[in-house]
Specification:
Blueprint (H helix, E strand, L loop, with lengths): L1 E2 L14 E6 L14 E3 L2 E3 L7 H18 E11 L40 H11 L3 E9 L16 E8 L17 H14 L25 E3 L15 H11 L5 E4 L6 H8 L3 E5 L4 H15 L2
Parallel strand pairs: 1-10, 2-5, 2-9, 6-8, 9-10
Antiparallel strand pairs: 3-4, 5-7, 6-7
Helix pairs in contact: 1-2, 4-5, 5-6
Length: 305
């Protein structure tokens, strides 16, 4: 189910009915989407194109309050967000306009009260505001993109990652680590072998005598750095995230038949993966309605025919 509406309008979703909120909202001052403007107080425009970072953060808190309302007390909120630079050429580029990605609409920032080229720390601003608003931050996950788009900048290192923040409402919540464990590498196996030799009287291993490094039979904890390539698509959407990334978030935070919400569902990737994993996917978005409906409809047809 997809609600074709603004996230700043009341959500037609029952309170405490969603097990996981998994989303990637428009980033601050990066690109202009082909969707209608919204009205928030006296301001009219596109969410993500506010005059200042403070305005963007305050608007984020508005829809995050609704996310808090609909999320179950034992649920998890995953928020993917990237940073911006003051004076950016838009569409993910730095001050050097050559950093624009082909096909993305350009958006030129208004003048900000920050030094040109200064990283704005948007993810950090948003996260601190959410914690102050009552959310519990459990993880700061680094999504490393091995195949990240190249940038033409020559006076800094190119960006290869984005943040995913994992929030909860309370101390105890639904989290299934076993669903997302990774196979242990040969390095870990060698480490365990060395530990075993050390316990048998051999010298030189970094483990102290008498200690054992026990491996879980299902594999290791994947940690908070996720190296997952971006996923190519023929769809006309410039910010689609890979299904593997969404799959990990859904598997660790939900069970079969649970409800997964993406309030910025865009092309419908979260909903598509949720359906594949036998969850109920619901979304909210002002644009890309036909694209997301087509993609989720295709997987439903595959599952029930």
């Amino acid at each position: 189910m997809i609600y074709n509406q603004s996230v700043f309008d009341p959500w037609l979703i029952e309170s405490e009915s969603v097990q996981a909120v998994i989303t990637s909202p428009p980033y601050f001052a990066l690109r202009k989407y082909d969707i209608p403007d919204v009205i928030i107080g006296e301001w009219k425009g596109q969410y993500g194109l506010e005059p200042t970072p403070s305005d963007y953060v305050s608007h984020t808190l508005l829809w995050a309050k609704e996310a808090y309302r609909v999320l179950r007390n034992d649920g998890i909120f995953f928020l993917n967000i990237a940073d911006s630079y003051a004076g950016s050429g838009g569409a993910g580029g730095d001050y050097n306009t050559g950093g624009l990605r082909e096909g993305q609409p350009k958006y030129k920032q208004s003048k900000l009260n920050y030094p040109t080229k200064c990283q704005l720390l948007i993810p950090h601003r948003v996260t601190i505001a959410l914690v102050d608003a009552g959310w519990t931050l459990r993880n700061t996950i680094v999504w490393h993109k091995p195949n990240a788009m190249p940038e033409s900048v020559t006076d800094r290192f190119s960006k290869k990652y984005e943040y995913i923040f994992m929030f909860t409402k309370q101390e105890k919540y639904c989290f299934d680590l076993d669903e997302v464990r990774e196979k242990c590498s040969s390095v870990n196996k060698l480490r365990d072998r060395n530990s075993e030799l050390s316990n048998n009287g051999y010298i030189g291993d970094r483990f102290s005598k008498g200690e054992r490094s026990e491996q879980h039979p299902l594999g290791k904890n994947p940690g908070d750095i996720w190296s997952i390539p971006t996923q190519p698509s023929s769809e006309k959407h410039f910010a689609m995230w890979p299904e593997r990334l969404v799959e990990r978030m859904i598997k660790c935070s939900t069970r079969a038949r649970d409800m997964v919400l993406d309030p910025f569902c865009g092309s419908g990737t979260t909903l598509k993966v949720a359906e594949q994993l036998h969850r109920k996917g619901i979304g909210i978005d002002l644009g890309y309605h036909e694209m997301s409906k087509r993609r989720t409809g295709k997987i439903q047809k595959e599952m029930f025919t």
